[in-house]
């Protein structure tokens, strides 16, 4: 536990609601990404990518993931026609295998149960398309804990832009200053800072391959079950 966390134990953050990221925060979906991307690449008769590439590329939305994957294997700029064909294939494959190669991080269900019982309004805010996020949350037993779920296509912009988080606060009826964003990357932290929300980062997520402690945050946690002792309900 960091010194910052120790201080906050005696002065917990006063929180109305909690907004939680999905990939890299609640679910380790890297396996799903790798399988769906490589199935897409097979359809396009292109070489595969490995887990190392995927782990440092996820987190900025599906379109970015697919574009970067194509650029990696063809070593050239990607035109809109190829991106469109690839996206269609990727979404089809991801829907077919969603959840089969992913796992919940330790403490997620237990942490959500505690936060729900303590009366926090909960929302999931992810850059994953809504059509993929919703079924995954049902598959992993997460959906019933949340008041609302917003995918990457729910708003005109995605994280790290603050707009999705601002709109999520409005949906929850909570003040940004009392709405905790929980994520695993600089995207989540940047969105939270711009939206004037406090931010907690998990140490086990993706963050594009960089240590999460390099990103400024109010809290760093090892499990979602760490949160209840660091915040208090208002």
UniProtKB/TrEMBL annotation:
It catalyses: 2-phosphoglycolate + H2O = glycolate + phosphate. GO terms for molecular function: metal ion binding; phosphoglycolate phosphatase activity. GO terms for biological process: DNA repair; glycolate biosynthetic process; reductive pentose-phosphate cycle. One of its GO terms (cellular component) is cytosol. Pathway: Organic acid metabolism; glycolate biosynthesis; glycolate from 2-phosphoglycolate: step 1/1. It comes from the Bacteria. Keywords: Calvin cycle, Carbohydrate metabolism, Hydrolase, Magnesium, Metal-binding. Its cofactor is Mg(2+). The active site is at residue 21. InterPro entries: HAD-like_hydrolase_sf, HAD-like_sf, HAD-SF_hydro_IA, HAD_2, HAD_sf, PGP-like_dom2, PGPase_prok. Its EC number is 3.1.3.18. The keyword Metal-binding applies. Mg(2+) binds at residues 21, 23, 184. The keyword Metal-binding applies. Specifically catalyzes the dephosphorylation of 2-phosphoglycolate. Is involved in the dissimilation of the intracellular 2-phosphoglycolate formed during the DNA repair of 3'-phosphoglycolate ends, a major class of DNA lesions induced by oxidative stress. Homotrimer. Belongs to the HAD-like hydrolase superfamily. CbbY/CbbZ/Gph/YieH family. HAMAP family: GPH_hydrolase_bact. This is Phosphoglycolate phosphatase. The lineage of its organism: Bacteria, Pseudomonadati, Pseudomonadota, Betaproteobacteria, Burkholderiales. The gene is cbbZP.
């Amino acid at each position: 536990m960091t010194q910052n966390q120790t201080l906050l134990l005696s002065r917990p953050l006063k929180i109305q609601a909690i907004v939680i990221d999905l990939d890299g925060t609640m679910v380790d979906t890297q396996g799903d990404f790798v399988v769906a991307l490589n199935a897409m690449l097979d359809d396009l008769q292109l070489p595969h990518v490995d887990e190392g590439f995927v782990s440092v590329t996820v987190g900025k939305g599906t379109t970015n993931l697919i574009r970067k994957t194509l650029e990696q294997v063809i070593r050239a700029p990607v035109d809109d026609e190829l991106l469109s064909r690839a996206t269609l294939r990727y979404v089809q494959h991801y829907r077919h295998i969603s959840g089969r190669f992913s796992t919940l991080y330790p403490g997620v269900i237990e942490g959500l149960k505690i936060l729900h019982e303590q009366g926090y309004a909960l929302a999931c805010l992810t850059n994953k398309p809504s059509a993929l996020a919703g079924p995954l949350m049902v598959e992993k037993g997460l959906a019933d804990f949340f008041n609302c779920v917003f995918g990457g296509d729910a708003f005109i912009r995605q994280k790290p832009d603050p707009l999705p988080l601002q709109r999520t606060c409005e949906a929850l009826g909570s003040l940004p200053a009392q709405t905790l964003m929980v994520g695993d990357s600089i995207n989540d932290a940047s969105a939270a800072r711009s939206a004037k929300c406090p931010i907690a980062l998990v140490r086990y997520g993706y963050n594009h391959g960089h240590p999460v402690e390099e990103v400024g945050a109010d809290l760093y946690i090892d499990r979602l079950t760490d949160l209840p002792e660091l915040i208090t309900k208002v």
